[in-house]
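Okay, is this right?
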Amino acid sequence: MLAWESLELAAPAAVERRGHLCSSRAAAMRVAIPGLRADAAAELLLSVITLTAGWWTLRHLAAVVLDQAVSDDGRRAVVVAQATALAEAANASAHHQGTEDAVPQRPHSPGHLPWDG
């Protein structure tokens, strides 16, 4: 559905509801990764969603890209490992860059998602 919406609709569907849901997920990531900036948490969330959604929306692409077939459990394990690596990198970056106070934050409103330009 997410892929179809991005291809067919001029704007995201249910922006307010989904924006609040995404904000709460990004906030949970900030709890799990102390020091992670709000913008970095939103970027990490988008990357994890993209990895996950890409796996099931582009299922046939695996036959083109990979040398051998992979089971759902096998692919899930790879996606989890990659998401974990992204989170660890975000954690290292958070500790390297310091606190959120050093980075100006964009306001979040129902029509402005953290990753919008």
Residues 18-97 form one domain.
